[in-house]
Sequence to fold (141 residues):
Amino acid sequence: MEKGNGRILCVDDHKDTCEMLAALLGLEGYQVSQANTVSDGLCAALSEPFDLILLDWVFKDGSGIELCKMLCGAGVKTPILFYSGIVDRSEMEAAMRAGAQGFLVKPVDIDDLLGSVSRVVSNGASAQQRGSARPPANSSP
Fold:
């Protein structure tokens, strides 16, 4: 697999999950910033450019789907990939309707995670070159 590059925002209420993802994705060449609340994730996503937002579902101060809707409503064009233990198909579909490009269920195979991240980041870069607002969904449930 080709080494990635790009900036990823990991928004997860479990710091250890963020740290694990930062280490794993860092080995693949990505720069990873971390946020552990909806409000911190919103602030980070609005203040810095990212190539991908990895987003959990459940937070003490809201939900990942609420953050996804806020980001899309604010005009953020960064692709969003949910990474959560939620396995309810209707909630996965709600995430996609809210603007996410994919949904990975924890625990996920490392190769599947890296492949999905690479595809979404690459599609986002391609969409920006073409002038598209958001890349197509490629890792749907």
In short: The first helix runs from residue 15 to 27.
